[in-house]
From TrEMBL:
Family membership noted in the UniProt record: Belongs to the MoeA family.
Keywords tagged on the record: Magnesium, Metal-binding, Molybdenum, Molybdenum cofactor biosynthesis, Transferase
Keyword match RNA-binding: no
Official protein name in the record: Molybdopterin molybdenumtransferase
Pathway this chain belongs to: Cofactor biosynthesis; molybdopterin biosynthesis
Catalytic activity field: adenylyl-molybdopterin + molybdate = Mo-molybdopterin + AMP + H(+)
InterPro entries in alphabetical order: MoaB/Mog-like_dom_sf, MoaB/Mog_dom, MoeA-like
Length: 340
């Protein structure tokens, strides 16, 4: 920072706001801190009594905060992400260009912020977002940052930090098990709950089969729904370790890849995920029927993008997998399902 004559200030960066006062008419900021002084600004500054001003010199080694924000925009903006047209006070905002799951390259994000003098903040990785939603913001800390630092940032980030994976359209088959429901002793309440949760996405429920506690019938009903075009199967009922509960073994015996039977999430520890080829099959524990939000909500959003989840993906939810069962549910704007 240095003090120079205003008439020699073209190309320098203002270090403070400059206020104009017109008695009885106007009082307010006319030049903002960080403004790059132009030739046409000189008479205005002189008329404000500013014969000298305090400035930063950009030169060949400095990058103005707004130009640095544009660089950060390019480093952050991946598929299905756009940035606001206007950069405000050196900050650039990133938004989702579709409904889907936000993917954050957390390792590169950490490395970028570790450079110092750069602030890049995002929503959590694997967060469910809506089109137009603010998902990240970035800026440099000083008004003028070294060109060398920004060159380091560009060389560090090989692929964009952010992307949004859009939801797919699925045809869903529901298989509800249990003698008590099959024989009409009690009314099924699970199906309607599942349909309501699926309505948050672009899904078509092509059918719901009620099955007794018979593995062959359960498997046969599932195969029938697959033959009718289902590309996702959801099983409800009979998911505990009780010997009479046959749903988990029925799903496993259908073949495919068992990802997990059990998860470090409460509510939802008896959840099962398997893939028959690329067809996800989920076995839902009873808590989905009476809890506001469970593991099903967390996993369903990711499954809806076509992502093939692995066991590690599920086990990572142990950190952040406890629902606090708030009286007023704010999910997804809460800690549940947010990996720390």
């Amino acid at each position: 920072m240095k003090k120079i004559k205003t008439v020699e200030a073209v190309g320098y960066v203002l270090q403070h706001d400059i206020t104009q006062i017109l008695p009885g008419e106007f009082k307010g900021r006319i030049f903002k801190k960080g403004h790059v002084i132009l030739e046409e600004d000189i008479p205005k500054l002189l008329n404000l009594g500013k014969d000298h001003i305090y400035v930063f010199e950009l030169g060949e080694k400095g990058v103005h905060e707004n130009d640095a924000a544009l660089i950060l925009g390019k480093l952050g903006k991946g598929k299905n992400v756009f940035t606001d047209v206007e950069i405000k006070e050196g900050k650039i905002n990133f938004r989702a260009d579709c409904d889907g799951i936000l993917k954050v390259n957390t390792e590169q994000l950490l490395e970028l912020n570790m450079l110092g003098e750069i602030s890049f903040a995002t929503l959590p990785n694997n967060y469910s977002v809506k089109k137009g939603e603010l998902i990240a913001g970035a800026r440099v800390i000083p008004l003028v940052i070294s060109k060398e630092k920004m060159d380091m940032a560009r060389s560090l980030i090989k692929t964009p930090i952010l992307k949004v994976v859009p939801y797919r359209s699925y045809k869903v088959g529901i298989i509800t098990t249990g003698n008590e429901i099959f024989y009409g002793r009690i009314k099924d309440k699970f199906g309607e709950i599942i349909k309501n949760k699926l309505s948050e996405y672009k899904c078509e429920v092509i059918g719901q089969s009620l099955c007794p506690d018979d593995k062959e019938i359960i498997k046969s009903s599932a195969k029938k729904l697959l033959n009718e075009g289902a590309d996702m199967l959801i099983f409800t009922g009979g998911m505990s370790v009780d010997p009479d509960d046959l749903t988990p073994s029925s799903i496993i015996e259908m073949g495919g890849e068992l990802v997990t039977y059990g998860a470090p999430v409460l509510p939802g520890s008896m959840f099962l995920l398997s893939y028959l080829g690329d067809i996800p099959m989920m076995g839902l524990p009873g808590c989905v029927m009476f809890s506001k939000r469970t593991i099903f909500d967390i996993i369903l959003s990711r499954v809806m993008t076509g992502e093939i989840l692995k066991k590690r993906d599920i086990m990572l939810y142990g950190n952040g997998g406890l629902c606090q069962d708030c009286e007023i549910c704010h999910y997804p704007n809460c800690s549940f399902g947010k990996q720390g």
